[in-house]
Design goal:
Order of helices and strands: HHHHHHHHHEHHHHEH
Protein name: Fatty acid desaturase
Keywords: Membrane, Transmembrane, Transmembrane helix
Strand order of the largest sheet: 1-2
GO molecular function, one term: sphingolipid delta-4 desaturase activity
Shape: globular
Number of helices: 14
InterPro entries: FA_desaturase_dom
Pfam family, one: FA_desaturase
Helix content: 55-70%
Radius of gyration: 19 Å
Length: 299
């Protein structure tokens, strides 16, 4: 029997409608009335939209890949092409390659041989980026540059799939630019800063989702948070549950975890945090992991 919820996934559709309303309200009325309020709404709307995009590429709320993609077509976060996100993220879901510096597209680790060849200044920046504060401040910029440069190399090698992803991204960004020029009441600097802040929030989720571990099953985290960040992340803080049941919609993940937490914690070797508050306390100014992969040979 399919793990997908039978029938129309109303919670996802209603949340998506609320997400667009939040973002539209932030860029128009709220920005005109009080700019800080508008920026907060745009930040929350763009962050939530990214989480919903993740939901769509996993096959929700419809069975049609086209209509799922169409629902999140406007690129509210500006920098992540939907098709590229889809391709790289689904490749990431091969648990056997998690954290691999080459094969896992979402790995935060480097091959130690590459790390030791980097200039001292670059290593200093990447060490800062390995603290939670650094990841929120520098992570969106560094991650976007690395992603775009990697895709540019792929396009130069003749990868048409990557080129298609970026070509489709142009009208997706165009929709947002049109809205801001014709209806938006927010200064460009405020809009860009709000969008960057949304990407910073998302870096909280990805900061320690996966760890270096000899057993692939022990690499994926559980964060038992039920607060606002869990909602913005659509319960992906219960990350091992999502990896084990990638077709299950976001609103069913907490129920699955509560029914049998030991099943998931025994699978991931009790890689768990009680809340994002604990994560902030422990790692805001301190790195959790080294940049070079600790299990890779250094020779």
């Amino acid at each position: 029997m399919s793990e997908r919820l039978r029938g129309l996934e109303w919670p996802t559709l209603l949340l998506l409608a609320g997400c667009y309303a939040l973002w539209a309200l932030g860029t128009t009325w709220a920005a005109a009335v009080w700019l800080p309020l508008g920026m907060i709404l745009v930040t929350l709307g763009a962050a939530l939209h990214s989480s919903l995009t993740h939901e769509m590429l996993h096959g929700h709320p419809f069975r049609s890949r086209f209509w799922n993609g169409a629902l999140v077509f406007p690129a509210l976060s500006l920098v992540v092409p939907y098709l590229r996100f889809k391709d790289t993220h689904l490749a990431h879901h091969r648990d056997s390659i998690l954290t691999d510096p080459y094969d896992d597209p979402e790995s935060n680790f480097l091959d130690p041989k590459v790390w030791h060849r980097l200039p001292r200044a670059a290593r200093m920046v990447m060490r800062v980026n390995n603290t939670l504060a650094g990841r929120m401040l520098l992570g969106p910029l560094l991650g976007t540059l690395a992603f775009a440069l990697s895709d540019l190399r792929a396009v130069r090698r003749g990868d048409r799939r990557v080129l298609l992803g970026w070509a489709l991204h142009v009208p997706a960004v165009g929709v947002v630019v049109w809205w801001m020029l014709s209806l938006g009441r927010m200064p460009a600097w405020a809009f860009l800063l709000s969008t960057y802040a949304a990407l910073s929030i998302l870096k909280i989720r990805t900061f320690l989702e996966h760890r270096a571990h000899g057993d692939a099953r022990g690499r994926t985290v559980i964060i038992e948070d039920r607060g606002p960040l869990a909602l913005i992340f659509l319960n992906n803080n219960l990350h091992v549950v999502h990896h084990m049941h990638a077709m299950v919609p976001w609103y069913r993940l907490p129920v699955m975890y509560r029914r049998n937490p030991q099943r998931y914690l025994s699978r991931n070797g009790d890689y768990r945090y009680r809340s994002y508050a604990e994560v902030f306390r422990r790692y805001f100014l301190r790195a959790k992991d080294p940049v070079p992969h600790p299990l890779w040979p250094r020779g």
